[in-house]
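In response to the reviewer comment on reproducibility (Comment 2.3), we provide here a single inverse folding case reported in full, input and output, so that an independent group could reproduce the run without further information from us. The structure tokens appear first.
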């Protein structure tokens, strides 16, 4: 029997220490569309010049894990990935809402890819979200991709733990929610946007140590850089308001709320200080013209926030 994609289960558990698989894991199955997780090894080749012209040395060098997980965003199931992307954990802000802001503490995950039909399991350790990308457009669910970077992968004939089932909420769509530009009040709702894409990037990369006692080819740690939040807002070309914000370098704000059809499970992505870095208005066909506005989110002194994710409390 060959492994089938339809019999694949993807599960995730938090790690207490980088790259150490939990022995009694709180592991949860996650819904997913596709994934490309894999182990990579560098090659170390000999450089001897041989009179017979035949290479004789080729070894495996540094190893690292990585790849992407593509999902339809929904309540609860991916909070552990959002926390990894934001280097923080959700905290309670009121009886109705929880908040997640960008922090400084990396959060590492163990991820298991189970090929249930052949009883084989790939265990990825020391994984963290390098980039979380969100795409909101008509006639689709909220598409989210988590680009992962990690330490290692091991193949096993037994599962890491018995995962709990996903929480069972419906995915978010592009019609249930609200978009505010220039503020967060109801008077700032904008209804000319045809799509918005944005991402959180952490610049994660594996680093290596030599002559360690064990497993010195795997990453010793993950280094990281500044948290960057950038995106593109695409709006119908209705007037000069958005273009003038780019021309005059006028800062604005974005509040993006997504929800499922119940209207009870919203997540809001709040960027209180945003700057547009372009305003192209190309002509692609005889139909409607659009304004393409690449933007960057910046740290706001008044709120101590660059990006805040607000979810309704369970």
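Designed residues, in position order:
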């Amino acid at each position: 029997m060959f492994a089938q994609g339809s019999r694949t289960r993807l599960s995730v558990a938090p790690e207490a220490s980088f790259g150490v698989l939990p022995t009694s894991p709180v592991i949860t199955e996650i819904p997913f569309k596709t994934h490309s997780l894999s182990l990579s090894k560098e090659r170390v080749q000999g450089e001897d010049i041989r009179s017979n012209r035949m290479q004789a040395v080729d070894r495996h060098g540094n190893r690292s894990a990585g790849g992407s997980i593509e999902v339809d965003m929904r309540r609860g199931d991916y909070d552990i990935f959002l926390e990894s992307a934001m280097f923080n954990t959700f905290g309670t802000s009121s009886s109705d809402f929880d908040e997640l802001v960008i922090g400084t503490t990396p959060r590492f995950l163990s991820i298991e890819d189970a090929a249930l039909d052949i009883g084989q399991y790939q265990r990825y350790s020391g994984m963290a979200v390098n980039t979380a990308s969100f795409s909101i457009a008509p006639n689709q669910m909220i598409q989210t991709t988590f680009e992962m970077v990690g330490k290692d992968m091991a193949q096993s004939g037994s599962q890491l733990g018995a995962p709990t089932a996903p929480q069972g909420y419906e995915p978010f769509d592009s019609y249930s929610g609200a978009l505010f530009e220039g503020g967060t009040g109801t008077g700032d709702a904008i209804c000319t946007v045809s799509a918005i894409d944005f991402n959180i990037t952490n610049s994660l990369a594996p680093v290596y140590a030599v002559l360690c006692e064990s497993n010195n080819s795997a990453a010793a740690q993950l280094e990281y850089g500044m948290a960057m939040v950038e995106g593109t807002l695409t709006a119908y070309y209705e007037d000069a308001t958005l273009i003038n914000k780019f021309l005059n370098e006028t800062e604005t704000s974005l509040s993006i709320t997504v929800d499922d059809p119940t209207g009870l499970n919203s997540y809001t992505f709040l960027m209180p200080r945003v700057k547009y870095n372009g305003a192209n208005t190309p002509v692609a066909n005889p139909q409607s013209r659009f304004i393409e506005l690449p933007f960057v989110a910046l740290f706001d002194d008044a709120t101590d926030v660059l990006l805040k994710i607000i979810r309704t409390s369970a």
